[in-house]
């Protein structure tokens, strides 16, 4: 239709006629440091929105819409950034919708910073869903919990089974899809004010003993991995920033780091103006795998900061105290990472002038204290528009 604004020319004419200034409003510095969208299953936290060049950011996804269409099987996965540059980040290349590398190494769970159960990932399709049952946001302390307990298993979507058949894709155990007997996978994330620290607690349970694999990826530089008696230290770097992950677990972990994809990335689609198909670079993948256990727990402290800050100094790296708790800066963390007992953790600011804490115990409410205010969080099912 002539003059339609659905056409490029119509949109240009509309813009010429409606050259109006944007309304005045508060700037980025006046926004809260985080926001959670439970309806879509997304959360994001930034320490300095007024100057993003000096901002540590953490994003998180656990979506009730699953991994169909352009979504990926990354329920309960997180990413970290400094100055907008990716650090721990989802891996793989999207060549086409059903390219073998795109499905096995970009859409599949193995490509993301989450968990594999017995080496198996999350379903492709709306059936492989997660959700965000609890969250709290403030500048003193923030919290989000994701539940991916229903995300794992065989691919059963008729649409994706048909696409697999048409594209010679096999959603088999050899390629990362099978029943796992997973009962619980809840990931709790606490951002410790604007310090750049985040605490991540994974509660995991299956019907039978299984292996639990903790995944991290980088796409810019290789990771540095160092094992100590207390934790595994994994460092991601970019041009200006770094993320240091200190991984605590229920038992001894078998770790592996590789720069190879499960299936090679072949650029057969995108050529430049000279007809040259530039090769896709490899990414880096870290896996820490447990022995077989019905119940398992991971606790991770992630510190995202400018690259010139040394995260190995006494203030930045976690210190184990005599009572078994962990001290990082002005924060104290107690967490049950044993396979025995109920899941629990407490994160508390130790400064006398700062009332900020998050605690969780026995599958009960999450209790938050923030500047004299007490909040108890219980599961709330988001309202969905379907």
Automatic annotation (TrEMBL):
Domain Heparinase II/III-like C-terminal: 32-259
Pfam families, A to Z: Hepar_II_III_C
GO terms of molecular function: lyase activity
InterPro entries: Hepar_II_III_C
Domain of life: Bacteria
Record's protein name: Heparinase
């Amino acid at each position: 239709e002539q003059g339609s604004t659905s056409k490029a020319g119509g949109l240009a004419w509309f813009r010429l006629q409606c050259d109006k200034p944007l309304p005045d409003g508060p700037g980025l510095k006046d926004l809260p440091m985080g926001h959670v969208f439970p309806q879509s299953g997304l959360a994001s936290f930034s320490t300095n929105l007024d100057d993003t060049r000096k901002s540590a950011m953490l994003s998180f996804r656990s979506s009730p819409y699953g991994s169909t269409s352009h979504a990926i099987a990354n329920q309960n996965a997180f990413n970290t950034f400094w100055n907008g540059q990716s650090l721990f980040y989802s891996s793989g290349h999207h060549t086409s919708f059903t390219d073998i590398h795109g499905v096995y190494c970009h859409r599949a769970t193995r490509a993301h910073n989450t968990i594999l159960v017995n080496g198996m990932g999350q379903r492709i399709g709306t059936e492989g869903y997660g959700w965000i049952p609890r969250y709290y946001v403030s500048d003193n302390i923030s919290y989000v919990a994701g539940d991916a307990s229903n995300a794992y298993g065989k691919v059963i979507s008729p649409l994706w089974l048909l696409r697999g058949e048409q594209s010679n894709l096999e959603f088999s155990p050899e390629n990362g899809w099978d029943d796992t007997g997973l009962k619980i996978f809840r990931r709790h994330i606490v951002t410790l004010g604007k310090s750049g620290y985040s605490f991540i607690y994974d509660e995991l349970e299956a019907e039978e003993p299984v292996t639990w694999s903790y995944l991290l990826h980088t796409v810019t530089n290789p990771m540095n991995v160092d094992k100590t008696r207390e934790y595994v230290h994994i460092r991601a770097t970019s041009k200006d920033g770094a993320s240091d992950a200190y991984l605590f677990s229920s038992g001894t972990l078998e770790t592996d780091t590789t720069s190879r994809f499960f299936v090679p990335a072949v650029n057969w689609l995108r050529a430049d103006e000279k007809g040259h198909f530039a090769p896709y670079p490899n990414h880096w993948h870290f896996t820490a795998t447990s022995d077989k256990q019905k119940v398992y727990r991971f606790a991770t402290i992630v510190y995202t900061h400018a690259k010139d800050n040394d995260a190995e100094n006494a203030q930045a790296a976690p210190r184990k105290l005599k009572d078994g708790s962990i001290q990082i800066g002005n924060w104290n963390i107690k967490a049950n990472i044993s396979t025995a007992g109920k899941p629990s953790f407490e994160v508390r600011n130790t400064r006398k002038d700062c009332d900020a804490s998050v605690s969780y115990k026995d599958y009960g409410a999450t209790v938050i204290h923030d500047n004299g205010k007490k909040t108890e969080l219980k599961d709330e099912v988001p309202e969905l528009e379907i």
